[in-house]
Specification:
single chain; 1482 residues; alpha+beta; eleven-stranded antiparallel beta sheet; seven-stranded mixed beta sheet; 33 helices; 30% helix; elongated
Length: 1482
């Protein structure tokens, strides 16, 4: 049970005290009324004795009486009415509430923390030991207060209000005080009249009430003297006369009113009466008229007699809706009643709590005429009366009763016992309580010995002589059971058990079965619930003191019934406290019985107590997954709070029902929602100007909030295609975002001379939970800000949001000027949020969504706009809207079946709506950098809702015209790009950057190299072409250009950053420009996503935003076209012209059509082959072909052979250093100028892209200087093998599409680097894999140039044999035929070379001898020569043949090594082509 202020012994002693009656004369009443008290009220605070009393028992043993209290009350001749008692008890419970503002008791039991009262108790598992110690400490604390004071007040007043009964004498008067004023003319005669009046009340048949203990009642005569007005001498003389008449022990002179109420009013005198007068005088017959505290609201009537009618004052429905509080406490409202609660809420709305009525009563001062000396006189008077009058009288009465019982017992009881023994045996068994007994009409006469025993037992009990009392009760119990007087027997059992418990030293255990028998007898046989309740209250306290909480709880629960809701509620609550106080606290049982208690409190009209019980039970059910129980509790808390006008609590309770994951049906959820809206509306009406509260619905996923900075872009029109840029419809891709960031850093670094600024902030147009939100985002004035809020409707009923908009606050700032330290006033739209938000045109324009519908359990996105018109700092706080429901399905002819409430405002028959807000609170990312952050949970800021509004900036829109979606690999297509400045600020420094610069070009820097328009050339070609005559076919046309003209080279170190040529370099506001753009299909087939980032700046510098970017992603699908394979080898011939020293090369180009009729391609034409190199150029096409234009159908292959020579000396002058020589060999009627846009652009861009990839993979620059050092063998050898010749194959494809023939054109690039290596225009898969693997290889030491390989060393010397192809010799005349042969040796390196020529012929196999025959070289078998750098020497040899035939002269073996490398062995040089000679015999 709950903790009490009194111990069990104190409680029982105060429940049964000697009763003293009072009869006052009128003058005496006037004397006491000066203090606003009657006589009994005057002495009540002093009725507890502070000193011990003594008396002797019948055995002449002294009995000590401690802490005795007497009850002095006016004589009331009518017993109190049961209805009045019920009203009074209900009022007592109602006015006793938990103190506000105190810290609650927190009892921790297992996983539960329970707030019980005003002290803090904390314990942990194992909870009992710590909890018990804390509780013991609490109970001994001077700050300790009762946990349930309303129960103690009820219990105390219940015992005081019990009417006197005939079966017991505990409530009978033992004495009567006769009080007369000293101002009476004849005080003695007045005493006589009062004495006669008392005698008449006690002994006449007119009065059956009150009850008197014995016929010879003690009369005590009190002379009341008013010191302030009366004659003290006269009072003394009258008192002397009284002592002579009544004896010194039978009378007393009480002097009071030492001062008048007007004198000394400033003196603070204690008021001990107030605490007693708050308790209603139940024995005053004028209860309803006199007591100021009985202002009882009709709703507090207990449910005993007319409780149903009383309860229906609260919960009856006008439309016949059933009362839900009469159902089971855990049963939720019926689904067919979706809105029945609104009527009850409306009815409860005007109900005022009882305490408010009490507060209106005026405060009355008591004892104003009394001084502290008067208090002492009253206290002395009570002590004199008790010690000299009452206790001697009781002692005398006990002796008399004992003597009577002893004298009567000798004859009558012995005869009675003998008769019993004769007929029924020696032992009389105690009757079972379950046996049927008839006690109707069984009454003992007053002089019956059984009653005398009971009377003596009661007297002994009142004076704390519990041993003798128990003996008498036990004897009386047997007699009553023998007589089948069950009411008397139950009373004796009850008091015997109490006496046994109170006996000092506990000689015998507490007979709990006595109490159980008594309670069952009172309830079942006597039908007296009042006595049964008293017995249960006493027994429960005793069991609790013995820590038998389980038995106490069972007893209390058994006492609940339907005849009294208030009693049942109190007992259920105490039973709940028993469960929580057990050795192993039963927390869920505690909560369940608190729910039952709250339900009964509610039926009894005790709304505050009902609310408290539900709140305490909620502590157990909350967060444990008992969703239906939680919903019921929250719903009841909400309704009770609304009844008590605790509207904030009501809103909070209903809010919990809606925000939790509810398992209720749709109709029940609709009911909850409508009740919440109605309660919320009542709250908002109380403070219409107050801040808007938080709405629980719909749920907002704050972390999913996205913020977009940008205007609504124009869509594509006709052939125009708008740049994709960024939109809210795109999903966030972290890898793609990183690519955009790298592109932006690349172009910013170029603009800032190669370094990214420290304060660089990547542009982010759309912020979400995955972006970097640590910095304040930048927004531009006059450009919209779109906030995407994700709403989730957790209910199974649809919601309607109206007038939905954003809440914000704004701090104006002028970033163009220095702040003077005077901060401007913060502007906010929160004040306007109560109504439909007005658009602030001068600061921030706020878009309002008129209606936003959400179906059941739907997640929906709302996009809300803000239009900033000033610069400053904006903070987006949340959203504001009207939350409503759709019209009820119960509409009949436009009338809602549940809406019995008068409609007003937004509450209409078509549904309800209330205005509120929800804040957008976004938690930043968890910090995990420092040790402190790693060991704790800290989150960084998330600034996505706090943009900085910057000054105006230019705004670019880009449109692509005739932009293809599909291309052939290497296909060239011309499109146009339109740039539009849609802002009011001019822009400049327009650039574009891409990871694929080889895909596009805007033309060369020099205008003559860029064709004006595709219509300016024949066949609408994207190339610059000229008509060639037939005589110039297959011959070379040479041009000399610099890479710088095409944006490639040292002047443009940024790969992929291209300046877009604008007229005057500025795009003015509102203007647009179209520029040509050439595209080339990627060499790899498939789908390609190519990202363009357009960069631009404002002509006016601003401190906040340095630049802006625009993104575009082009998706190109490429199909296979041609595959080009090329090799280069040295020519065996030496030209006689000037450039013969430099040597010639043969270039073999193998072209295959690998297109399998994809994209409708019919055939390819190789129209031109061009070369580009700094050192080499194509000279002419040497393969014999009748058809100049090579046509390739599907899977056909063509082979072309070209002669390449070194560039002429005038082309290699100092002015031409770094320039490329372009040579065109056209195979058709039209020559394409390859040294102009777009051919040269794409060539240089593809070369630059290839070189950058090589640099990334190798970690070394791709270009190697042509200069060499004498000790660098590798460079020397490599230069021998390097060619550095680029081949450009230009083609046309004929495509049939929609029955029309189209001509496509394109170019493929092949870079020849090394002699003898075949190179393909298509990247090999194996090569790609190796390149990927190279990324993960980390060399242990810096890479060094490896020793040259044998293959590389075999190309140092070029050899050639000159001889006649046929030779006639007369073998018959001359048997030896000698043929002169010239061996030409050419040093291909830039260093001196030692050469050894070995002429010793060694046939490698017999087959060789058979085929080629044998011959002999004449002269030396070995020659040693030394060739200088690039020197050519000729060696004259003679070959000797002995018969005719075909011979191979290519048998000389040449070995070479670098002159300076002495340790290096000679390496065999590559043998030249077979040199066949025909020897004819003449």
């Amino acid at each position: 049970m709950a903790q009490c202020l009194q111990s069990v012994q104190e409680f029982i002693q105060d429940s049964f005290v000697p009763m003293v009656a009072v009869l006052c004369s009128e003058d005496a009443e006037k004397v006491t009324r000066k203090n606003n008290l009657n006589f009994s009220e005057l002495v009540r605070p002093f009725c507890r004795l502070t000193s011990e009393g003594h008396m002797r028992d019948p055995n002449n043993q002294i009995q000590v009486i401690k802490n005795l209290k007497i009850n002095i009350s006016n004589i009331v001749t009518q017993p109190p009415q049961p209805t009045v008692i019920r009203k009074m008890l209900s009022e007592v419970v109602s006015v006793s509430q938990p103190a506000d503002g105190l810290v609650a008791n927190v009892i921790t039991a297992g996983d539960y923390d329970l707030n019980i009262s005003d002290r803090s108790i904390k314990a942990s598992v194992p909870w009992y030991n710590n909890w018990k110690e804390s509780l013991m400490e609490l109970s001994t604390s001077k700050f300790f207060t009762a946990t349930t004071p309303w129960f103690e007040a009820y219990r105390e007043n219940f015992f005081q209000s019990m009417p006197a009964s005939d079966h017991e004498f505990l409530n009978h008067y033992l004495a009567c005080m006769l009080v007369v004023s000293s101002r009476e003319a004849e005080p003695v005669e007045q005493f006589l009249k009062l004495s006669q009046e008392q005698h008449q009340i006690q002994h006449s048949n007119e009065y059956s009430y009150p009850k008197w203990f014995i016929p010879n009642t003690l009369k005590y005569y009190v002379l009341l003297h008013d010191i302030s007005e009366g004659d003290e001498q006269r009072a003394d003389s009258v008192y002397e006369e009284m002592k002579q008449r009544y004896g010194t022990q039978g009378c007393y002179l009480l002097k009071i009113n030492s001062r008048s109420s007007a004198i000394g009013s400033d003196e603070q005198i204690p008021d001990p009466w107030s605490q007693y007068l708050q308790k209603i005088n139940f024995q005053n017959q004028d209860f309803n008229d006199e007591s100021p505290s009985v202002v009882i609201n009709s709703k507090n009537i207990e449910n005993s007699i007319n409780a149903e009618e009383a309860d229906e004052l609260d919960f009856s429905s006008k439309d016949g809706v059933p009362n839900n509080f009469k159902a089971h406490p855990l049963q939720l409202d019926h689904p067919s009643d979706p809105g029945g609660h609104l009527d009850s809420l409306e009815a409860l709305k005007c109900t005022a709590p009882v305490s408010e009525a009490k507060k209106q009563t005026s405060v009355t001062t008591h004892g104003a005429c009394l001084t502290l000396n008067d208090h002492d006189r009253i206290r002395q008077f009570i002590q004199e009366f008790t010690f000299r009058g009452l206790l001697p009288h009781i002692e005398k009465t006990i002796r008399q009763l004992n003597d009577q019982l002893v004298s009567r017992k000798g004859l009558s009881r012995s005869l009675f016992s003998a008769t019993k023994k004769w007929f029924s045996g020696s032992k009389v068994p105690e009757k079972s309580i379950n046996e049927p007994k008839n006690t109707a009409g069984l009454l003992y006469p007053p002089e019956a010995p059984e009653l005398q025993i009971r009377k003596m037992a009661d007297l002994c009990f009142l004076v704390q002589h519990y041993d003798l009392a128990y003996s008498c009760y036990h004897t009386a119990k047997k007699d009553f059971l023998n007589d089948q007087a069950m009411l008397y027997a139950a009373g004796a059992l009850e008091m015997a058990a109490i006496s046994a418990f109170l006996q000092p030293g506990a000689p015998r255990p507490y007979p709990a079965h006595y109490m159980d028998t008594a309670i069952q007898t009172y309830k079942d046989m006597c039908k007296n619930m009042v006595l049964a309740e008293r017995c249960a209250l006493l027994s429960a306290e005793v069991l609790k003191s013995q820590t038998k909480y389980s038995e106490a709880a069972t007893l209390l629960i058994r006492m609940t019934s339907e005849d009294s809701d208030l009693r049942s509620a109190l007992l259920l609550e105490q039973a709940a406290h028993c469960f929580i106080n057990m050795r192993s606290p039963m927390v869920r049982k505690f909560a369940f019985h608190m729910i039952l208690a709250g339900h009964r409190y509610s039926k009894a009209g005790q709304k505050r107590h009902a609310l408290r019980c539900y709140c305490q039970a909620m502590q157990v059910y909350k967060g444990k997954g008992w969703s239906l129980a939680e919903d019921h509790i929250n719903f009841t808390i909400g309704r009770q709070s609304f009844t008590l006008r605790q509207l904030e609590n009501a809103v909070s309770a209903f809010r919990h029902i809606l925000i939790n994951d509810s398992k209720q049906t749709a109709s029940q959820q609709g009911t909850f929602l409508r009740e919440y809206l109605y309660v919320y509306k009542s709250v908002s009406q109380l403070s219409p100007e107050g801040p808007l509260p938080q709405l629980p619905l719909p749920c907002i996923e704050s972390s999913a909030t996205r913020v977009f900075f940008g205007h609504d872009r124009r869509l594509a029109e006709g052939v125009k295609q708008a740049a994709t840029h960024v939109s809210l419809d795109q999903e966030f891709d972290r890898d793609l975002s990183q690519q955009w960031k790298e592109l932006e850093e690349q172009v910013v670094a170029i603009v800032n001379r190669g370094a990214v600024p420290v304060n660089f902030q990547p542009t982010q147009y759309c912020l979400n939970s995955q972006t970097d939100n640590l910095r304040f985002p930048m927004a531009v004035v006059e450009e919209p800000i779109i906030v995407e809020v994700v709403f989730k409707n957790p209910l199974k009923v649809p919601l309607v949001l109206t007038d939905l908009s954003l809440l914000w606050k704004f701090q104006p700032k002028d970033f163009c000027r220095l702040q003077n330290g005077e901060a401007k006033e913060v502007i906010s739209n929160e004040k306007d949020a109560h109504m439909k938000p007005m658009v602030k045109n001068d600061v921030i324009g706020t878009e309002v969504i008129p209606e936003f519908n959400m179906s059941h359990e739907e997640t929906k996105v709302a996009r809300l706009k803000l239009f900033p018109h000033q610069t400053g700092e904006l903070h987006i706080l949340g959203v504001v809207y009207n939350l409503g429901t759709i019209p009820s399905p119960n509409m009949v002819d436009g009338i809602d079946s549940f809406a019995g409430i008068q409609t007003e405002g937004n509450l209409t028959s078509n549904g309800m709506s209330v205005r509120g807000r929800q804040d957008l609170e976004i938690q930043g990312p968890r910090l995990n950098n420092t040790k402190e952050e790693k060991t704790s949970v800290k989150h960084g800021p998330d600034r996505r809702l706090d943009p900085v509004i910057t000054p105006p900036m230019p705004l670019l829109e880009v449109f692509f015209i005739n932009f293809p979606t599909g291309l052939l690999c290497g296909e060239i297509r011309k499109a146009y790009v339109e740039f539009v400045n849609v802002s009011k600020v001019p822009l400049n420094a327009l650039k574009v950057v891409s990871k694929h610069p080889e895909f596009f070009t805007f033309g060369s820097h020099s205008a003559p190299l860029t064709p004006l328009s595709p219509t300016a050339s024949e066949n609408c070609s994207a190339y610059k072409t000229v008509v060639s005559d037939s005589s110039s076919a297959c011959t070379a046309t040479t041009s000399l250009v610099s890479p710088v003209d095409f944006g490639v080279g040292c002047d443009n170190p940024g790969l992929g950053v291209v300046d877009i040529p604008l007229p005057d370099s500025v795009l003015l506001p509102g203007t647009s420009i179209q520029l040509p753009m050439w595209l080339r299909g990627p060499d790899k087939e498939g789908v390609h996503e190519i990202n363009f980032l357009f960069y631009y700046k404002s002509t006016e510098s601003t401190s906040k935003l340095s630049h802006r970017v625009l993104r575009h992603t082009a998706v190109i699908c490429t199909s296979r076209s041609l595959s080009v394979r090329a090799t280069v080898c040295r020519s065996n011939t030496f030209q006689d012209d000037d450039d013969g020293r430099n040597g010639n090369m043969l270039v073999f180009v193998d072209v295959e059509n690998i297109n399998t009729n994809e994209a409708g391609v019919r055939e390819f034409h190789i129209v031109q082959v061009s070369s580009s190199s700094k050192h080499w150029r194509l000279q002419k096409c040497i393969n014999p072909c009748e058809d100049k234009d090579a046509k390739l159908s599907s899977r056909e292959r063509g082979k072309l052979c070209f002669r390449a020579t070194k560039c002429k000396s005038q082309e290699a002058t100092s002015s031409a250093l770094g320039k490329y020589t372009f040579t065109d060999i056209n195979l058709g009627n039209e020559q394409i100028i390859s040294a102009t846009t777009p051919c040269a652009d794409f060539f240089f861009r593809s070369c630059q892209s290839t070189e950058s990839k090589k640099t990334v993979l190798s970690g070394q620059p791709a270009h190697v200087s042509s200069r060499w050092q004498s000790n660098d063998v590798t460079k020397v050898v490599r230069n021998c093998n390097e060619v550095d010749l680029n081949i450009i194959v230009l083609w046309k494809a004929y495509v049939v599409e929609d029955n029309k023939q189209l001509i496509l054109e394109g170019q493929l690039h092949v870079a020849l680097q090394t002699i003898g290596n075949e190179v393909c225009s298509l990247s090999q898969k194996q090569e790609a894999q190796e390149m990927v693997l190279l990324k993960f290889i980390r060399p242990e030491q810096p890479p060094s140039l490896a020793r040259p390989s044998m293959e590389q060393l075999s190309h140092l010397i070029k050899t050639s044999l000159r001889y006649p192809e046929s030779y006639d010799h007369p073998f018959l005349q001359k048997s030896l035929c000698m043929v002169p042969v010239t061996l030409t040796l050419s040093n291909c390196s830039l260093a001196g070379v030692d050469v050894i020529i070995d002429l010793r012929h060694k046939a490698t196999s017999p087959e060789t001898l058979e085929v080629h025959g044998s011959f002999t070289w004449l002269g030396k078998t070995q020659y040693k020569l030394q060739l200088k750098a690039q020197e050519i020497q000729k060696l004259q040899l003679k070959a000797c043949f002995i018969h005719a035939g075909v011979y191979n002269l290519g048998t000389p073996r040449v070995f070479a090594k670098l002159t300076d490398q002495g340790s290096m062995c000679e390496t065999s040089q590559q043998n030249s082509m077979p040199a066949l000679i025909i020897i004819n015999s003449v």
